[in-house]
Structure formats: structure tokens, C-alpha cells
Amino acid sequence: MRAARIFIEESKELGVFDKIRQVRVDLYGSLAATGIGHGTDTAILLGLEGETPEGVDTDTIKSRVDVIKETKSLTLGSNKISFDPKTNIVFHKESLPQHPNGMRLSTYDAEGDLLSVNEFYSIGGGFVVNEKTRVADNVYYKDARVDHALDPSSVDVSEIHFLNGKSKPQSKKGRPVSPSSPARTAQNFVRAALPFHNAASLLDICEKEKLSIAQVVYKNELQWRSSEEIKKRLLGIWDVMNKSIENGINSTETYLPGLLKVKRRSPALYKQLMANVGQQNGQPVPNLAKSPVLSALSVFAIAVQEENAAMRRVVTAPTNGAAGVVPSVLKCYLTFFSPPNRSLIDQEREYLLTAAAIGMLYKRGASISAAEGCQGEIGVATSMSAAGICAILGGTPQQVENAAEIGMEHSLGLTCDPVNGAVLIPCIERNAIGSVKAVTSAQLALNGDGSHKVSLDNVIETMRQTGLEMSHKYKETSLGGLAINVPVC
Questions:
Q1: Fewer CB within 10 Å, N or C, the chain?
Q2: For residues 427, 433, 438 and 443, what is the CA-based torsion angle, rounded to 10 degrees?
Q3: pLDDT tens per residue across span 449-472
Q4: Which of 398, 411, 247, 401 is nearest to 331 (CA)?
């Protein structure tokens, strides 16, 4: 959705938008292999019509897509153009060179002449890049409009650096000017106050500056936006996460969309959880299977993933397929363990900022995409959550790094083999397992002193190598594993 919206906005900036009469979408590699099951085609249709992940009315998605399919037309601004998803969206088995999750968007005028074309890659985390952007860095398109990628009022242009190492001319508003688009700012970034490139350098900064991991990330974020804006955005992220849990456990739907006829379970599981909590009245848990903590972690994670499967709004953390782990661990902590004398807001911020730091390390050193197997989704989410919960439980930076390492070490080699390409089986339950594993990882780290044989940097590099050597059948293509051994109906 984000890539399609950006492409349309760029067409406006190039002055060709009003001439568009045809649009062609080409999906490649794993993005094509699981595109239907993942709802990729639906997201692109909405993006072309100007929607954003943050703003789309999720209750209208199905009806809007049905109209597009029935009328074989798209609405671009005030223009309605011919568009048949069956022929205008083309799925290719082969991958584009830079990344397995590739797409090419093209527009044509009334005579069929090409107006504009661009290639984008979905690399996880809600990020999309084009062929000119290095995958190894941490600033990508995360806004529906590329000219909003940086707020010029908060940027000292003397501190702007570019991925290719070359200087670029500045616009009157202080924004860099790109030959391809006067508003393109995705390929530049403001220098971080405390830059780190791996876990070792992050821990070194924490030691030298006497800061927590969350504080390092916070100081870096201040280079882009004010303290109030950071607080607002973090609270906004948690609000969406929390709502996805609440919406999931309160859903009245019986089945999730798709041919698999998977039932929603979180509403019933939540009722069982509340009944067990009420019966215990502070007494020891009589049955491990009824432990409120284990049950809550699973219920909250499943609730989010059921919302994702139903194309409702979730927070990509680090992917939609793994979006249940980070919120479920924090929700469980806030529900059962948050001290009354500690600010909820402060705990939420510390958790999210710490988790974000770990996510950055994976995105830079390996991947946050199932194109490298589910280790890049659930594995990274588990690692991020383990670090976050370890931090708010009082862990040192060394213990937090240890928790993150444990979370991934025991997720290495995890395959991505969704049945029928849908984010249902095994994805929903895998989020529950990841949540429990995250808490266990933090527990092990907190019971130690932070010293350990395997470093987070070691495990990130191992994950990268494992992903490269893993068969493509187990990397979000639905060509192996459960995807070929579980009948669809």
C-alpha cells in the first residue's frame, strides 16, 4: 500500500498523474508467490487509490476491493480508469535483483505510451525502498509522501549525509533535490547523535555515556523530532497495538477470511483467561496449562494476528506476520506486573525504544523479512520483545543484549511456509510461541550477569548466513514444508 501510494504521489509531482489511463502492477519472487494469501494485491489497489496504512478505513476494505473487481476500474483522484486486477496485476515467479519482495509499477497514457515506472522492494518493517537505495541502512520510505520523510524545520542541512556519499543541491525549503523527483528525501538521513552499527557499538555507547539502550535511541530520535513528537508517536504506536488486541478479543466474527476456514479463537481464549484469573483469587495456579501469564501471552498475540488476518489495522513489528509478539509481551506485563509507582507511559516508551534498537540491528545486519525465513519475522520479533521486557524489568544493557540474543539463537532456521500463502497457519500460533519465548529469554538473561558466549552480533550474522543458505522453498514462497503437506480444504 505504501509503495503504491508513493508511486502515485510521485506521478503527481512529475506532472503525469492527470494523463494516466492505465496502470500495470508486476509482483516478483516471494511477494508474488504469497501475494494473494497475504493480501498484497488488495493493499496495492488501495494504495493506488490514495490510501495509507495509518488512515485507511479497514471496515470498508472488502467492499471497496469488490467494487474495483466488479467494475474493473480504479479511481485516481477525480479520474476513473480501466483496471482489471486479473490482468493488470501480474505475478512472476522470478525475483528482481535486489530483493525477493519486489514490485514494478507502471503507468500509461490513453495511447498506451509509458508515462512513469518505478521498482520498489518491501523489506519488512513497513519499509519500502527502490533500486537506488541501499538495503543496509536504516532510513527508508515510511511516509505516504516522500517529501514528508524529513521535517525541514528540524533539520540542519549541514548535517545531511547521503547514502552514495555525494553532496546534493538543496531546495529553498532545505530539502535535498533529486534528479528523479524534486521532493525525494528517502535517500538521505540526518546524522544520529549517538550512531551505532551493531550491538557491540551500541553497548559501547551505553557504557561510555552511562545511558540505557532506550535512552540512546531517544537521543538519536531527537535529531529528527521534538520530545513531545517522540512521545506522541510512541503513544500512538502503543495505542494501535493495544486496540488490535482489544478488537481481537472482542470480535464477534466466527471465521477468518480465506479458503482455510480458520476459526477466530482469541475471544473464547480470553474468556477462559478471565475465568481462571477470577477463580484463583491470588492462590497458587493449580494447573500450569491455566497459568494466567502463559495464557495472556498467547491470547494477546493470537488476537493481534487474527486482526491482521482479517485485514484490520496492526502495527508492523517488525512485520505484519509477526505483529502479535511485541504488543502481547508488553500488554501482559502492564496487565499483571506493572508496579503501581511506575509511570505506564515511561514503561511503554522504554519497552518500545529498546525493542526498536534491536530491530534496527537486524535490519542493518541481516533482515526483518520472511524472504529470509520466519527467523526474520517471528525470530526478530521475539528478540525485540525479549530485549524490551528485559529492559523494563530492570536489566542492564548487557542483560538486554543477552535477552535479545537468546530470543534469536533459538529461532535460527525457522521456516516461512504458510499454508495457501495465507498468514494463518502456522503464523497465528507462532506469534503465541514467540511471545512466551521472549519472556523466557528475558528471564534467563536477568538471572545472569550479562556475560555469555554467543553475542547478539554473532547471532545476527548467523541468521543472515542461514537465510542466504536456506532453500527458497522455505522463504515465504509456500513451495515447501507445511504449505505442501497441509490440505487447503
A1: C
A2: 180
A3: 878 999 999 999 999 999 999 999
A4: 247
